[in-house]
Write a structure and sequence with these properties.
By secondary structure, the chain is α/β, with parallel strands linked by helices. It has 3 domains: 16-63 and 181-222 and 268-332 and 490-552, FAD/NAD(P)-binding domain, CATH 3.50.50; 73-173, no CATH class; 335-478, Flavocytochrome C3, Chain A, domain 1. 33% of the residues lie in helices and 18% in strands. The chain is built from 18 helices and 22 strands. The chain has helices spanning 39-50, 80-84, 91-102, 108-116, 118-127, 181-194, 229-242, 249-266, 289-295, 313-320, 341-344, 363-371, 384-390, 402-408, 410-419, 427-434, 438-454, 535-552; strands at residues 16-18, 26-35, 55-58, 73-75, 136-137, 150-151, 171-173, 198-200, 205-211, 216-223, 268-280, 303-304, 325-326, 331-333, 347-350, 378-383, 421-424, 474-478, 489-492, 495-496, 504-506, 512-518. Strands 1, 2, 3, 8, 9, 10, 11, 21 and 22 form a 9-stranded mixed β-sheet that branches. β9 and β10 form a beta hairpin. It starts with 15 loop residues before the first strand and ends in an 18-residue tail after the last helix. The relative contact order is 0.18.
Length: 570
């Protein structure tokens, strides 16, 4: 696939191929150039700098990307934080669990290395100024409430997993109030700049620069001049979105269109030389809806989750140099039904009234199962006691940092209880209102209640969530992938194929592209086939450090250091 082909849908341009690299009009240079400065990019930048390289990071906005607006969860095993909470975990048990979730997306040796490096990478984060805490949250929840920092972030306690690997809480939330992805990124940014990494902001990369052999020797950016009116507008737009409006996809799409116009009209083209390598780390393609429709149509109706810059540009850039892609149909769709835990005690059914999943599975597994249904439609059935219990989770606590969490859970729950719920005095009446076979729904609930009475659920739901549905009226909440009142956030997980030892981008024939590396959601990684909370950030650190270290020692065509005055950075 090339620029201009059907379904390309990207502003990325074909590479600039140079006959004479030395005579090019380079405006700046560095040993290693990082494209995209979130968790993966910052990790790569720090590692490359500590390996002795001169490092320049460029970012479309001001850095942070999706990391800075995320929950700030790091997935780690055999850590001191776990031991402080009373859990003795091992890299082997972490591997046994993740082996089930990752489904062979990386080689066994790579997965084991990820697990064995897990504690070391957490210690590395701490050395950059990131803080963790061992306050444990044991109840089923997709994200721990404020003041809790360690939890079971995946399917560790779910039947089929807990028997295979000893459960341990591996979701390490960065210490702070509310969503703490911004805290994580700020620590990484401060560390990188303190070590001498240079950061060029409001400079979206437009294309790669290659030599005649196909090696990557630099990039071109469209930099908006610092202090210019367009620069200020560009900055205001991204800061407005990141102030809390990133939960509303229409706002993000509006901001994406506005910023793209500024970049096109006011961006100054600049060539930047990368003497050793370029690392691509610009995030997923969540906001590029045509790309999602093309590669992952089952998730086209889901809500895009990410930052304005998650437009697939890094992936497309790698493709223009001949990079192979994979796992592009894989999407993490977070169909959360917890909180409230009352919903977990209900019954999830298809549009034909059949139960299809254990309700206590990880939210990503729930989304995957719904997306696999022929019509991608599903309902959650609860009775009167569970419906009343769910209202307890609506009101916010108004503690420091309460707003992001409440917007994700409390506000969404309130909208669902008020506008996304159908009610029926009996199961038959409810089925009629929902357009599903009454006899099937009645049989499904009867079979479930019989299983509850025996204390053993055929789908493996934990005993603590087994409550009979016997007290009408009954309620149905729409949990379909494309539900507009109960949005299902989604992040594409596919990307460029990389060498698992170095992070080099690979071609379809398996050969490596000299001078080009990728990490984070630009590359296939640990979480690319199935995501568990915390594995994306953990993979960003793991793969980012790998790419930065490799790029720092890459040997490409020797080119004299640029002697022209470097462009100001800011």
């Amino acid at each position: 696939m090339k620029p201009g082909d059907a379904n390309w849908n990207s502003p990325v341009e074909p590479p600039l191929v140079l006959d004479d690299v030395e005579r090019a009009q380079w405006r700046d240079s560095a040993d290693v150039v990082i494209v995209g400065f979130g968790a993966a990019g910052a990790s790569a930048a720090i590692e490359a700098r500590e390996s002795g390289a001169d490092v320049l990071a460029v970012d479309r906005f001001e850095g942070g990307g999706s990391t800075a607006i995320s929950g700030g969860i790091y997935y780690g095993g055999a850590t001191q934080v776990q031991r402080e909470a009373g859990y003795e975990d091992t890299a082997e048990q972490m591997y046994r669990y993740l082996k089930l979730e990752t489904e062979g997306v990386v080689a066994d040796e790579t997965l084991m290395r990820f697990c064995r490096d897990s504690n070391g990478n957490l210690l590395w984060l701490q050395a950059q100024g990131v803080r963790f805490d061992s306050t444990l949250y044991k109840t089923k929840r997709s994200y721990p409430p404020n003041k809790y920092y360690l939890y079971f972030s995946g399917n560790e306690l779910v039947a089929g997993y807990r028997e295979h690997a000893k459960p341990a809480p591996r979701g390490h939330r960065v210490f702070g109030d509310g969503y703490t992805g911004g805290v994580l990124f700020q620590a990484l940014k401060d560390s990188a700049l303190g070590k001498g990494v240079r950061l060029m902001t409001h400079a979206p990369a437009s294309r790669l620069v290659l030599d005649r052999s196909g090696a990557v020797v630099g990039i071109e950016v469209r930099r908006i001049p610092p202090g210019a009116r367009a620069w200020k507008q560009h900055s205001r737009l991204i800061n407005l979105v990141n102030s809390g409006l990133n939960y509303f996809e229409p706002v993000i799409q509006w901001a994406a269109r506005k910023t793209a116009v500024l970049e096109q009209n006011d961006g100054e083209r600049m060539l930047i030389r990368a003497r050793r390598g370029v690392v691509l780390s610009t995030g997923s393609f969540a906001m590029n809806r045509p790309m999602v429709r093309h590669y992952a149509p089952n998730y086209a109706g889901a809500m895009a989750l990410g930052s304005v810059g998650c437009d697939g540009a890094g992936i497309r850039m790698g493709q223009t140099a001949g990079g192979a892609i994979g796992e592009m149909e894989r999407v993490s769709a977070w169909r959360s039904i917890s909180p409230p835990t009352a919903f977990v005690k209900g019954v999830a059914v298809t549009s034909s009234g059949e139960r299809f999943v254990s309700e206590d599975v990880y939210l990503g597994r729930m989304g995957e199962r719904i997306a696999a249904l022929p019509d991608r439609k599903a309902l959650l059935i609860v009775d009167r006691p569970l419906y009343r219990e769910s209202w307890k989770n609506v009101l916010p606590t108004f503690e420091k940092g309460w707003l992001p969490e409440w917007l994700s859970y409390g506000f969404t729950l309130l909208i669902n209880l008020l506008t996304n719920t159908r009610k029926g005095r009996t199961l038959a009446k409810l089925a009629q209102k929902c357009g599903i076979p009454a006899a099937t729904l009645e049989r499904t609930v009867a079979e479930y209640n019989a299983a509850v009475a025996k204390g053993v659920d055929p789908l493996g739901k934990s005993a603590e969530y087994l409550d009979p549905l016997v007290d009408g009226p009954y309620y149905a909440i729409d949990i379909s992938i494309d539900s507009k009142k109960y949005p299902c956030p989604s992040i594409p997980m596919g990307g460029l194929v990389v060498d698992e030892d170095s992070g080099h981008v690979k071609r379809d024939d398996g050969s490596r592209i000299a001078g080009l590396f990728a990490a984070g959601r630009n590359a296939i990684g640990i979480c690319s086939r199935f995501y568990v909370s915390g594995t994306s950030i953990a993979d960003c650190v793991f793969a980012g450090r790998r790419a930065g270290r490799s790029a720092a020692v890459e040997h490409t065509l020797a080119v004299p250091v640029v002697t022209a005055a470097r462009a100001s950075v800011g």
